[in-house]
Each structure stands twice: as structure tokens, then as C-alpha cells.
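User: Some background: our group keeps a shared notebook of sequences we're curious about, and every so often someone picks one and asks for a predicted structure to add to the entry. Today it's my turn. The entry only has the sequence so far, pasted here. Could you supply the structure so I can complete it?
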Amino acid sequence: MSDARGSEGGSNLPAHRLSSQELEAVIRRAMELQSAAGGADEGISEAEVVRIGHELGLEPAHVRRAIGDVRSQAPEEQGLVASMMGPGRIRAARTVRGSADEIRRVVEEYLLRCEYMMVQRRFPDRTRYLRDSSIAAGFGRVARQFGHREPRLDIKELDVAVLAVDAETALVELSVNLSGDRTGYVAGGAVAGTVMGVPPAVFALFTAAPDLLALAAIPIAGAWMLGMRAGYRYTTRQTQEKLEGFLDRLEHRELRSPAGSEWGEVLKRIKPPRF
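Assistant: Of course. Here's the predicted structure to add to the notebook entry:
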């Protein structure tokens, strides 16, 4: 009795090789069908993605690079504010050689001792660091500006996730929430645009061409909002550059924590004089 299954894949489909474009389309369509059928999307681990890619003939290094590229893209946001101003969260991800535990230790030690940040929360999948606002940390940051040339992150809040891809590779993901800054830019543009647009509208009440003068308030308000958008997008670009630069130094093992005591550690041990 002959086997009705195809020679490849163990299915009843005839043996046929799919192109890269066809494979992508098939996977996308299968996910659409599963979603429409109410199937749960539990996700898949990075290690499993690497294994599947290997079975498809893809080099593990290329798959890991693709994972980093995809994870570095900020999730698409919906709504008027997001479409007008840009994303509220900036992300950067990179696959780095080394064990996840060792990379996690190096990153945390650098953030605590060189960036003068502190751990706020330890979530199951990431750690959130906040800028230390103590006087000792402030002196430490000032002293480090004069004594070191390496670029600083200088970020108020940073989420760090280090996920093991395999025993010798980890995916490092950095994330900064700028939604508060974005709200501030929007509010500033709205207030400034309203203030600058009110005089033409009020003056229009006392002229012979009120409609034309009232309409002049619209481009004034719009110009202020465009200015606020440009300012926010500059902030997002600067933040993205800082994160990518940090990952560059981590990838090339250029993150160096101080060997001795920094100003912040020294000041913590100074006791106030007694009178």
C-alpha cells in the first residue's frame, strides 16, 4: 500500500518547495485563520524561532539579527496623538554574544555605578531603572562629566530586558517611555497656539472682514503644533541614538564600570559635622 503523504513535511500535500515570499504569505495567512478561529496567541520563544529558522535553512546568526531588528521597532500606536507626534515609547534591541546572566550583571553594574540610576521594579521579564535624585548621585554625575569622555545615557527612566537566545547569545532590549514628554509637547503646542490665535479672532469682531481675520488664527495654532511636533521628534531621535550607542558599547565590550570609588560613593560615607 503506497503512502499518500508527500515526501517532505509528513503531510498529505504534494512535495513542492515554497519560495521565501510564498512561505511568508503562508505563515501570515495561517496566523489570520487561527486568529479568526479564536485560537490563543501565546507567542513563541526566541530559542524556538532560531530552531525553526535552522530547519528552514536559515543561519542562526541571521535569525538572531532579525529578532533584534523586529524587537527594536516600537509597537504601532493608534490614535490622533500618536499619528501626529510619533511613538510614545522608544525601543532598541540587539543580540549580544555572552550569557544572559553575565550581560544582565554588566548592564546593571554600569547603570548603577556610572549612570547613577537605581532599581525601581524587577518584573518577570525586565527591570526598570530610575534616575537617582539623591545629592550624592548628583555630585557623582557632575564629577563623571569632568573625568570621563564616554557618552552618557542621561535618561530618567529605562526598562532593560535581557533574554537568553542560547547558551552563548542574549537579546538585550532597552525601552524608554516618552509618553509623558509627548503629552507635554501637545499641551504646550495647544496652549501656545490658542494664546497666539486669540488676538486675531478677537480683533475680527471689530473689523469689516471678521471671517478672514478669524481664519488667521487657524494657521497660527497649526504652526505652533508643528513646532511642538518637531521638538518631540528631535527628542525621540536623540533618545534612539543614546540607546543604540549604549548597545554598540555593550556589543563591543566597551562598558567599563569604575574600578575605584566614585564621588557618589565617597559622599555617601561622609558624615555631617556635629556642632
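Suggested note for the entry: Residues 47-181+225-264 form a domain with the Alpha-D-Glucose-1,6-Bisphosphate; Chain A, domain 4 fold (CATH 3.30.530). Residues 1-8, 261-273 have pLDDT under 50 and may be disordered.
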